Fold this protein.
Amino acid sequence: MAKETFTQAMSVAPEPQDAKNEKQKTSFIAFIADKGIFVFTIVLVLTAVFFVDGFASLQNVTDVFHRAAPIGIVALGMTFVVITGNYLDLSVVAQAAAAGVILIAVSNAYNLIVAFAVAFVVAIVFGLVNGIAVGYFKANAVIVTLATTYIGLGLLRLLSGGSQVFGPADGPIATFGTSKLGPFPYSAVVLVVVTLILTFVLTKTNFGFMIRSFGTNSSATRLAGTNTGLIVIGAFLVTSMAAMFGGFVLAAFSNTAVSNMASGFDFEALAAIIVGGTSVFGGKGSVPRTLLGVVFVSILSNVLVLVQVSYGLQQVAIGSLIVLAVTVDALGRRVSKK
Amino acid sequence: MTIPVIEARNIVKSFGGVRAVDTVSVSVMPGEIHAVIGENGAGKSTLMRILAGVETPDSGSVLIDGTEIENSARDSIDAGISLVHQELSLIPEMTVAENIMLGTFPTAGGWTKSRKMKSIAAETLKEIGVEVDLDERISRLSVALRQFVEIARAVARKPKVLILDEPTATLTPAETDYLLTMLQRLASQGLAIIYISHRIPEVFKICNKVTILRDGKLVANDSIDNLTPDKVIDQMVGRELKLDLSQRRQAHELGEVVLDAKGIKAPKVNGIDLQVSRGQIVGLGGLVGAGRTELIRAIIGADPKSSGRVTITSGGKKRIITGYLSAIKAGVAYIPEERRTDGLALTMTVSENIFLPNRNQVAPSGIMPKGKIAAFAKELSEKVGLRPPEVTRDAGKYSGGNQQKIVIAKWLGRNPTFIVLDEPTRGVDVGAKAEIHKLVKELADNGTAVLVISSDLPELLELSDLIHVVRDGKIAGTLAGAEASEKSVMSLAAGEKLVGA
């Protein structure tokens, strides 16, 4: 019995004594890196409720969610690629636009079902090309997806003639764009449903587990007998699906679509993911965190608009926020490594 | 009476409670080639890093020409000590001349004087008798030429003492001969050379004096004339045959051949055949860098092989191994050398780590059953003696021994037919080590074919039914039963002919 307790005491790695002081300093950074988004969101919301005129109305709040939905849906999907580690998908700009243009143009020419089918196939092709290049051939994700953005936008301009397409004013797309479920616009409902589905996939399925495991330690995951190329391809496919839905929702907003409609989605989606606390180093992160990141960035923009900050300054603010978030992520990682 | 050009007095250096160098004194005269030898982990490299000022000793002093020097790399270089590292430290994208002059670029007002740089580099290469284009990039040179450029860089600083750490590890016999002759010539011009090597024949060929380290302690310091290769190996291994033979595995009747690898060639592996049978534990002995890890990784497909054929037979069914995934499918389990980077996801829980290779068995539907996974992980954790068996705790929160048990546990779930363990107890405490040994033996008793790589000689002898000693990517000899001893393994590993055979 005495022997048992002895080994038990020895079996847990002891903490070095001299590290205690430093630990207090570093645990603050670790806390901010991990839980910061929750604190900041609460502070931001309370500040907005009490000090910003026009924020705390149902109309304004549902409006914020309504406008956040397209980028939010894209960001939720891209979270999968980010969690696999060091990857992101810039081509969501082209993918969302393609989905929007296809949705309206093809349903004008044929019908909605054909439009969905075509958009689906295009999304699969995007996901496969990105995923195979990055996951199987180990090409750099930034460059690959930058290139597929170019290819995608180019093809889209060729095929659509670069002009804006409009849906019929009384068509199902226009109806979707303006309808509400109780006080909630359909777009916000889609945002929540996608969050629920992707949360389930990431936390409760073998596929989601492999994504997290690969992002945490790719070498150990490979050596445990895993086809790691398939994991990365899967992550890009999830992103493509989300980008497609994001494009649909965006097109339904105004019942129109054009090839540059989703410009800025790449950066804004990444911003939401990083601010939400998903680590760009892979492994650490979750889908609800991205939703929270989306909410935070959207409320911040909304507040800045309400207090009449110019668009240029808004950009400066969001950009600074990202630099801060990525730095805290890197610091938090260094701290937890010690 | 000349004074030693370099002298170390009572050097002590500890890493985390382990004395890597324990009160060692060494002195070297001008023109002397002084060998420093010992087993893996005997403290040779640490001692050399202290002499070169890269590492600071806990106590003791280093004297150059009788004057004590401060311990910093810069001071040591200024004082005339040059260290040629074990790992090549050249910059592949730069030219030969630039690499030779790295850190000592001749400059004028901030501009590099490239003509002067080249002339010094050319002179140095001539001095050591190596012909190579000064403008060639390092990345285009052979390994041997890179090694010579590395030496040229050290010599270009006009050192008084040249320290070489295993310079011949990657060289062919002809290249080695060339290097040895070069060193003899440099020594005849008055340079003091400290030569670290595992290779006994080389030591006897060129060295005047020998210092032998064992477990960080000085065990011999003598003129080469008073030593024989046999004596040197005795001193290196040190331990009398105190091996507890009751711990040693009893010979078994061999089952069918499970692993059959023929003509394996890969980087650092030069054509090896290997067989492991059901219920057999085969050990791979040899020095660090001999190519053992490369061999087994090529066999199981974790790294590509350039030629060879591998089959795994289980239950009468023979499968050809084409890649790592096919090996895993055929029932291979691989416990890698680097458990923290290759064996475990440290920031994931024990449960998740164990689930990883067993997911298709535990969650065939693709949806993770939380309770079932926890129960599965718990059962395996208890089987390997994880303490405490808390499967929701992060793997990284456990000690080295426990982490290794988790790695073993995750593979046990698959009932492997062939298991490879690379340095299974490195950095593991004594208690856990014994438990891991017991687990490995039990696996073999239950019919698993086992392959163990170990640089820990008593461990290798205790576990293995049969020991292949690997040297320079080839099997230098095979030992079984009574002929396997620390000395016979070490002799084969170090390149000395098999004693008494």
Q: What stands out?
A: The first strand of chain A starts at residue 165 and ends at 166. The beta strands of chain A are 165-166, 180-181, 184-185, 256-257. Chain A has one domain: 41-47+55-337.
